Amino acid sequence: MRRHRNAKIIATIGPVSSEAKAFRALFEAGADLFRLNFSHGTHSDHRNSMALIRDLERDFGRPIGVVVDLQGPKLRVGTFAGGEVLLETGAAFRLDMSDEPGDAHRASLPHPEVFEALTEGQDLLLNDGRVRLRVGSVGADFVETEVIHGGIVGDHKGVNLPAAVLPIPALTAKDRRDLAFGLEIGADWIALSFVQRPDDVAEARKLVGGRAGLMSKLEKPGAIKSLNEIVDLSDAVMVARGDLGVEVPPEDVPILQKQVVRACRAAGKPVVVATQMLDSMIASPTPTRAEASDVAGAVYEGADAVMLSAETAVGDYSTEAVAMMSRIIERVERDPAYRPILDAVHTEAPATAADAITAAARQVAARIKAAAIVTYTTTGSTALRAARERPEVPILCLTTEVRTARRLTLAWGVHCVETKDASSLEEMVVGAIEVARSQGFAKQGDRLVITAGMPFGTPGATNILRIAWIER
């Protein structure tokens, strides 16, 4: 099941993809990781999904990453007497703390922290930005607004505050329970929703305690202001364009996406581009040309992974969506223009011995036309350094830790194999050759560039570069 592409695919699990047959079909179509969305489903549902993923992993003998995506502090209005109302442009509309069902003049907003953060003249967005309100007077438990752009609002629709940084943590009580459960069932990545500030990430890191990778989802404009600090504190970052696209002007979203991808690539942190990538394939067997270009754009930028959400969770063509995304990635990576575009934003490696060795491996592999770069790693840091360099040849990662192998399924160009550790240079070379041949990366007459650290098994101590010739 070797993938002949570098960018990875994350498929979200939902009602149409929760059976063993569906998991297999998505994986065979090209999914490298599965996302369990804790905004939906029960703990029992997610435990069952995890068991099916691990069964699939054993069947194929290949590590599969699992992302547990926490819901975060999603703000929502209350209910309406008739289930929904039409708000007329120019009308007055009040939001307050009352539990009474709403109507065309008022609605419940059971979030006191919102009223603390609002000031006159700010805008509130309802129903994914379809309705825009402008703040007039604000009290401790109410806000009077004017409807700037009218539309329909229904029960429990979302509320966005583009210009406000809310005094709320990124982890709710539900998130803390879900995080503990996700770690219990063996999540490889914990995705933290609605990150606003570096402190949100620092708090989550303490709770995760190194038991999984921490992925910060950037969907609030305030987070972009602290981008470098958030990237530094995170193990990976997701450009979550759903809520981000609601809170900033649409023309800003592509710019912010590129900014985040560049920052993550410079820091050597995996970056995911997500939301509505092949949205029309929820109900259609083919995407729009604009959607195909959107996926391609993320690949040209050098994103480590692209993600499907509703397309695979509730869509009528979930398998086709994964297969289409895989074909788009492969086609882009064969484009003669792909490598010059990718290299145009390549940054110098940090001035450490390990990074120097890894940067040299990329150059040597290109010069001698090696079949692959082989890295030995315990924690995954060596493989991530190799992925940061975006080499022209595949990265074959050998590790003794299955948790490391699963986590690295997110990293650009990395193919992980769980194997025993080498105890000598000879074992290192022999092991690299055996795995490269068995996994279809090399054949007789090919050369490999191998990196590792001595003493063997020492995390983060990359200090060896070796060229191996496959003689037989």
Number of DSSP-assigned strands: 21
Query: Which segments are poorly predicted (pLDDT under 50) over 5 or more consecutive residues?
Result: none
Helical content stands at 25-40%
* % residues in beta strands: 15-25%
Care to give the gist of this entry?
The chain has helices at 20-29, 43-60, 112-117, 173-184, 198-208, 221-225, 227-233, 241-247, 253-267, 289-301, 310-313, 318-334, 338-344, 353-368, 381-388, 402-407, 425-438, and strands at 8-13, 33-37, 65-69, 84-87, 92-96, 106-108, 123-126, 131-138, 142-149, 151-154, 159-160, 189-192, 213-218, 236-240, 271-274, 305-308, 372-376, 395-399, 414-418, 447-453, 462-469.
Which SSEs are present, and which pair or pack?
Layout: E1 8-13, H1 20-29, E2 33-37, H2 43-60, E3 65-69, E4 84-87, E5 92-96, E6 106-108, H3 112-117, E7 123-126, E8 131-138, E9 142-149, E10 151-154, E11 159-160, H4 173-184, E12 189-192, H5 198-208, E13 213-218, H6 221-225, H7 227-233, E14 236-240, H8 241-247, H9 253-267, E15 271-274, H10 289-301, E16 305-308, H11 310-313, H12 318-334, H13 338-344, H14 353-368, E17 372-376, H15 381-388, E18 395-399, H16 402-407, E19 414-418, H17 425-438, E20 447-453, E21 462-469
Parallel strand pairs: 1-2, 1-16, 2-3, 3-12, 5-6, 12-13, 13-14, 14-15, 15-16, 17-18, 17-20, 18-19
Antiparallel strand pairs: 4-10, 5-9, 7-8, 7-11, 8-9, 20-21
Describe the fold and architecture:
There is one protein chain. With 472 residues, the chain is an alpha/beta fold. It has 3 domains: 232 residues, Phosphoenolpyruvate-binding domains (TIM Barrel); 77 residues, PK beta-barrel domain-like (M1 Pyruvate Kinase, Domain 3, Beta Barrel), CATH 2.40.33.10; 117 residues, Pyruvate kinase, C-terminal domain (Pyruvate Kinase, Chain: A, domain 1), CATH 3.40.1380. Helix content is 37%, strand content 23%. It contains 17 helices and 21 strands. Helix 10 links the parallel strand 15 and strand 16. The longest helix has 18 residues.
